[in-house]
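TOPIC: backbone geometry
CONTENTS: sequence, structure tokens:
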Amino acid sequence: MLHSCCFNIKIMEKIMKKYICLLSIIGFVFAGEKTAQIKVKGMACQYSCPTRVKSALNDVKGVKMCDVNYETNTATVTYNDEEIKAKDIANILDNKTNFEISLDDKSKEETSGFKKFLSRFFKS
């Protein structure tokens, strides 16, 4: 017969295994996801110029999302840093568009918001 303390330990082991599995899956899904702020100078209009920047990254492997803000002259790019680096994204934009492209110094290799949140609890 199991004592009540042994029973509680068995339950806790099962719960911990489930949490470890869940965290592993979450870590795998968001592994390597980062965000870069890229300065885009020379956009003349708020419609076709941002579209040109976005379309330059449409088929780039590792780029997950690109949001271009005409008012601030920036492109916020979410990407997988295991497939591509921020400087490579900036180089692609420089080659495919006629805009002046530069990486924002303070966010050259910025980790995505969700990964930042997780890193507060699980330091690696």
Notes: The mean pLDDT is 82.
